[in-house]
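Q: What residues go here?
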């Protein structure tokens, strides 16, 4: 029969349409929180455009139906009135003896059934939809207000219309029209064409959004390269004006960073030469001064401490290492690094496996382990043993642990101690240093994709653990 109606209140529909974006935004936030809404700009924009196009198509289809239904109702009412009038005329003009054959021909050839109305007829009313109301109103205009309708007469389904042979005749007849005559034969065509238009619009929307998101993805990739301490190639300053401006600013920023990095390397080279050379001459002069041995040893220790602090400043100023990853034998690295300390009589206990190879940078890793050993000696003393452990966890991650019996680090101070120029004053009142040791180790591990863990040790002390992520150990 007719398709379901739309509400005749168009202003309410327009009001809901204007206020639609706010509920959509809230709904999108809920979907995002639940993990159902995409997180990339490309798919978020595409989904919003697709939703907007779908709602627009649905709104236009409802508007079309709203204005198309009255015209269709008039056409169908004209057809029904014509069938009823022709049937009535045929019955009036046919001889009484031929009426039965005429009714049989109408039923067989046209699908039109005619039955006399009786008070005991069992009728099922038509659905109260807007198309049906429009249709019945139009039919009554042409056949009279006495016209009745039904969707079932006794046990026969169809579109039933009552009529009288004469206007003042009290006897009524029921004429049934097949339901397919009232159906929309082009509904599937409209659906197919509407779906094709929607798909074409979505493809166009995807191409437009991808044209915007592609430069953004390229910028994000370049930004990650900058974040890793490298410098990407110049980005193409093309596309929309806004994106071109952003790309131009990004290229300028990377150029400024590259120049600043070159200046920093030049300054560090000058500092290394201009400061360490006088320190070496000063140490030689102190050792040849003829002063008492204890005074010479104290001055030499101060000079060595100054040289070590300068070295830390230089290490921190160099930034992240630039050399590529290579296989590093971790056991051999730790064993060779600990040997000079053991020759100086420092109590180092080594717990090493047979061999353990990781992907990394040998020099920064040596610097990180040496900083942890120096920290342990500085704050735990040279009398208590320091334990160096190399191992591999069940998930494949390799680790180097330096454990001491010093004062340790309170749990609430661990994160602060990772920052440069930071010291625990209570624990370090009698110690020297610039507060860069752990900051350098943190930077080295971040460049390796690993982590520095500062954990309390059972029985007192600190466990400083260098952990390499899974997949880098072998």
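A:
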């Amino acid at each position: 029969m007719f398709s379901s109606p739309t509400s005749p209140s168009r202003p309410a529909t327009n009001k809901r349409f204007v206020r639609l974006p706010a509920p959509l935004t809230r709904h999108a936030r809920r979907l995002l929180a639940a993990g159902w809404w995409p997180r990339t700009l490309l798919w978020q924009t595409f989904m919003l455009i697709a939703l907007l196009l779908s709602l627009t198509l649905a709104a236009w289809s409802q508007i079309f139906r709203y204005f198309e239904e009255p015209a269709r109702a008039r056409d169908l009412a004209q057809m029904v009135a014509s069938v009823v009038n022709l049937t009535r005329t045929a019955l009036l003009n046919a001889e009484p003896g031929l009426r039965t054959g005429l009714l049989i021909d109408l039923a067989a050839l046209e699908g039109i059934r005619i039955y006399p109305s009786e008070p005991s007829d069992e009728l099922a009313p038509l659905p109260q939809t807007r198309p049906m109301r429009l249709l019945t109103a139009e039919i009554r205009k042409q056949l009279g207000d006495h016209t009745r309708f039904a969707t079932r007469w006794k046990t026969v389904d169809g579109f039933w219309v009552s009529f009288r042979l004469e206007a003042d005749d009290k006897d009524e007849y029921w004429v049934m029209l097949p339901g397919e005559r009232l159906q929309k034969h082009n509904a599937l065509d409209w659906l197919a064409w509407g779906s094709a238009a929607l798909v074409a619009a979505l493809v166009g929307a995807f191409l437009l959004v991808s044209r915007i998101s592609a430069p953004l993805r390229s910028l994000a990739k370049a930004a990650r390269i900058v974040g890793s301490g490298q410098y990407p190639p110049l980005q193409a300053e093309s596309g929309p004006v806004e994106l071109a401006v952003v790309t131009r600013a990004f290229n300028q920023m990377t150029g400024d960073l590259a120049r600043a990095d070159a200046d920093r390397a030049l300054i560090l080279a000058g500092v290394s030469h201009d400061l360490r050379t006088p320190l070496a001459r000063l140490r030689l002069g102190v050792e040849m001064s003829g002063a008492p041995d204890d005074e010479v040893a104290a001055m030499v220790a101060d000079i060595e401490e100054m040289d070590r602090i300068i070295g830390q400043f230089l290490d921190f100023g160099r930034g992240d290492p630039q050399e590529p990853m290579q296989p590093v034998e971790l056991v051999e690295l730790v064993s060779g690094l600990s040997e000079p300390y053991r020759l100086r009589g420092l109590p180092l206990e080594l717990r090493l496996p047979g061999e353990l190879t990781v992907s990394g940078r040998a020099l920064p890793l040596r610097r990180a382990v040496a900083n942890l050993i120096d920290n342990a000696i500085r704050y735990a003393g040279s009398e208590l043993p320091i334990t160096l452990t190399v191992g591999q966890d069940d998930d494949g991650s390799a680790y180097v642990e330096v454990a001491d019996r010093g004062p340790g680090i309170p749990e609430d101070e661990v994160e602060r101690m990772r920052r440069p120029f930071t010291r625990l004053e209570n624990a370090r009142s009698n110690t020297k240093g610039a507060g860069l040791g752990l900051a350098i180790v943190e930077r080295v591990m971040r460049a390796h994709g690993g982590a520095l863990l500062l954990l309390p040790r059972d029985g007192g002390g600190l466990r400083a653990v260098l952990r390499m992520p899974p997949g880098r150990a072998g």
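A: Context that may help when evaluating the design: Residues 325-467 form a domain with the Heat Shock Protein 90 fold (CATH 3.30.565.10). The first helix runs from residue 10 to 18.
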